[in-house]
Amino acid sequence: MKRVLVTGTAGFIGFHLARKLVDLGFHVTGLDSINDYYDVELKYSRLEQSGILRNKVDYNQLVYSTTSDLYQFIQLQLEDRDALHELFANRKFDVVVNLAAQAGVRYSLTNPEAYVDCNITGFLNVLEACRHHPVENLIYASSSSVYGLNKKMPFSVNSNVDHPVSLYAASKKSNELMAHTYSHLFGIPTIGLRFFTVYGPWGRPDMALFLFTKAILEGKPIQVFNHGKMERDFTYIDDIVGGIEKMILKPPAPGEGWDPQSPDPSTSSAPYRIHNIGNSSPVKLTDFIEALEKALGKTAEKELMPIQPGDVEKTWADVSSLKRDYGYNPGTPVENGIKNFVEWYREYYQV
């Protein structure tokens, strides 16, 4: 089977994807810097679920899984160019899925340098590694945040995304532009995925579902921004992983009939594609909280707050290109996804 590098495997999406690919029989190398943006204990716990023991992890050293011969892990920063190139030269990857990034819209307001270092310099190093150690397919994480001030719903990959409202979003738009350049110049097949509010078991502690669950169980008020007048296209983790799984062995070809006189930003004359992955069913924040209250069996005390800088009021994914190219349509109901998250949270934290 193919040799796949998945970056960000101590993180939420990368953890789930690596496990799924191993189950499917791929030879997977996981990579993560294990930074302290959020609780590193949770990151090490994810790694341990994949048989990567904490006491074996050391910077730039391959660690072999105790549970599968198909999985190895290396702690590495994408900014470490020489070490990254050495890894590519030694492992000879067929496919790269780059999910490692400095995440978080609000954090980018106070720590902008982290986004340039990881999301731009780090991604450049990934592109250069794919150029000098050719791969069949490069899939990378973009974000629904790139839509910024755009209010034309649903968000379409064919729409303009030139008005980001956070540096995080700008860094993700930069990734799409950088990927196109390398697809055009060097023929690297690239797929950019705009994720829409991913949630589920083993999720990120800085996300609303995690924060709300913790506060409600502790009897503390939850902060509800924009006075609850928010809508999000919440996407369950299994739907994200399922979409990437379909793309692994199907790299994009140069776009047939692409018109430079009327350019579609989601495709190109190069082997380049952009796709939304979302549930395509926006949920009101108030309804989301009600579903969480039902799953927890507790009522939330709400502290209504103004909208935060960098936030948008509504997201809604047009996934027509995903259906067209892969016959794929995410659709896990939010009630089911929240129930699964709460069950995991109670078991993991013993509450």
Question: What are the key terms here?
Answer:
10 helices, single chain, 14 strands, 16% strand, two-stranded parallel sheet, alpha/beta, 351 residues, globular
Query: What class would the helix/strand composition place it in?
Result: alpha/beta
Strand tally is 14
Provide the helix percentage: 25-40%
Indicate the radius of gyration in whole angstroms.
20 Å
Please tell me about this protein's structure:
The structure is a single chain. This protein has 351 residues and is of the alpha/beta class. The chain is built from ten helices and 14 strands. The chain has helices spanning 12-23, 40-49, 81-91, 112-132, 167-186, 208-217, 237-248, 285-296, 320-326, 334-349; strands at 3-7, 27-32, 62-64, 71-75, 95-98, 137-143, 190-195, 198-199, 222-224, 231-232, 235-236, 272-277, 283-284, 302-304. The strands form four sheets. An eight-stranded mixed β-sheet has the order 3-4-2-1-5-6-7-12, sandwiched between helices. Strands 8-11 form a two-stranded parallel ribbon. Strand 5 (95-98), helix 4 (112-132) and strand 6 form a beta-alpha-beta unit. Helix 4 runs parallel beside helix 5 (167-186) and helix 6 packs across helix 8 (285-296). The longest helix is centred in the middle third of the chain and has 21 residues, at 112-132. It starts with a strand and ends with a helix. The model has no long low-confidence stretch (mean pLDDT 96).
